[in-house]
Amino acid sequence: MNAPYDGDRGQGAGGTEPSGGTPAATPGPGQGPVPPPQQPAQDPYAQNQYAQDPYVQDAYTHDPYRAQDLSAQDPVTEALYDRAAHPPPPPGTYQEPQPLYQQPATPPHAPDPRVWAQTPAPEPDGPSRRLPYGDDARTVQFTGVDDLVTRAGDEEPEPDAFAHLYRDQQTPGQVPPPAPEPNPMPAPAPKKSGRASGLLKSSAVMAAGTLVSRLTGFVRSLVITGALGAALLGDTFTVAYTLPTMIYILTVGGGLNSVFVPQLVRSMKNDEDGGEAYANRLLTLVMVALGLIVAIAVFAAPLLIRLMSNTIADDAAANSVAVTFARYCLPTIFFMGVHVVMGQILNARGKFGAMMWTPVLNNIVMIVTFGLFIWVYGTSADSHMGVQTIPDDGIRLLGIGTLLGLVVQALAMIPYLRETGFRFRPRFDWKGHGLGKTVKLAKWTVLFVLANQAGVLVVTQLATAAGEESGKDGAGFLAYSNAQLIWGMPQAIITVSVMAALLPRISRAAHDNDPGAVRDDISQGLRNSAVAIVPVAFAFLALGVPMSTLLYASSGLEAARGMGFILMAFGLGLIPYSVQYVVLRGFYAYEDTRTPFYNTVIVAAVNAAASAACYFVLPAQWAVVGMAAAYGLAYAVGVGVAWRRLRNRLGGDLDGAHVMRTYARLCLASLPAAIVAGAVGFGILKALGEDALGSLVALLVGGVTLLGVFFVAAKRMRIEELNSMVGMVRGRLGR
Prior knowledge:
The chain is an all-alpha fold. 65% of the residues lie in helices and 0% in strands. Residues 1-32, 127-135, 142-153 and 157-200 have low confidence and may be disordered.
């Protein structure tokens, strides 16, 4: 080690010996540094510089630990060191150790780039061979701090951890293939926030589009109810409007979403043309198939109306209106399918917003259409319009507006497709490109949809019959649909949002065959969603009447109150409905679609049987209320079956005790809150009346009361999920 350089002092130090006792001479190679030359005696700074400099003195002092056994250097084992068992070497046999930091010899061969973790270069024999705590320098890989800092933002590809498998199986003596030439100019590392920020941005766009679409759909249902009422005329339009969606799902929709879309994405990744030819074939095939389905459905509209509701078909005036509405609505099947295929083509190309936002255009067109109807003819409460008195111009206006909404929704996808470079060209060469094989894969999905729609068909028949027999507004199928729409919104916003963050983790854990991680994530999803779902379910039970009278006051007080009773009956069924959604995600993570099909068959069968029992046992006025309660009962049975099967799938443990304890505590906290809020809301309605103002005050005061009582009770019960949620909200608000 050379002395520090100082221009005023000269070029070195005096002729003092190093403190180690070795004479100052020119050593041979590898024997240490060369002492600086002798300086003139008149230099005052040159006298004993090594001894005066605190950074250089004793630099060459012999390390006493080198003469001891290496295990004695470990401070942990210093107390256990047996010096008697390790005597010092005899005199004259001590070998001077080599320098610690000698450059290793150049290896005879270049490093093999195919080897993932290469053995470090050999070091000279001596104390540097071993590191503290028993580590061996020959098997320890060192990484410099500078390298870590400068490359911290790089995203390097995963190393090939399985390269040794191929290397170990090579025949001894076999010449390895030549190593690939390194790229002279490596590609720049991608930005750190590219993929993650793009995923978060796409998820935010999709979530916002879904939320806006559901809100505008809710406004659409309000306008439809205000225009047509909740009696037979409203049921007639609802049956005709629901019919195209049911036919689309039964024929093309289910298989299109579950089978054709993955094939489409795969072709876009693997085909030379980016999957454009496959997309054109698929779009052409869907358009031809849906065109034939629309032609047959329009011709068979009277039969389809009878299949949906015998009550409407047996009434001549109602049947005429329903068939006319159906023939305007059935062509929307074609535009539904085209919209879905175009949206999935965009999704495969990384464009997610159009698929979620274009349904808002459909809702806006329908809101404007029914708003014009109300502007011309007035609300149902004012006009008292029925199936006998509705004018043909009114039917034509509503039919054209309903069809126009789906047309606008589908055509709005074309500019987005053109922006991605996709051009539609009809292709009829369907054979030999995997479309036939793809159709066979949709078996379980089609059966799943068929079982689900069978239950809907039974409820539609019974609800329309009960509404007609009761002779009261708000006791038929339209009231059932509107109440179900309100009831299902918390599920779509809360549970789906909670599971959106957990689904990738559940899928990865299932792929890695880690049932414990799958169990923990499903338990977390159930408990986190329950914090909001359970009190909302009790809120529907306590405040269903003021909620419905506020929203559907334009359809008449009797109809609004009837929908409120149906919403109350739906209320508690939201809990098993949400649990069923979360539990089925576990089967989908294991790519098991057959078990959800069997579970759906059980739910549909229980729902149909219980609804039929309500229709035959209860009075006609309360039959649909009983059907709403039967819907929740069916999902409770389905949860019991699905829970047991998933528990067996995960090795007999699904964290049931923890989940049940959380739900039980939340229900115990929600029960007194619902009782107090229901009493407060009922008292306000009696005092102020059941008009819009009284319902608004009852809903606001009752809602605040419910939340306050629930929060106090839950805090006293120390529900950890609620505490976590409150802490998260406070953290977001900066408090």
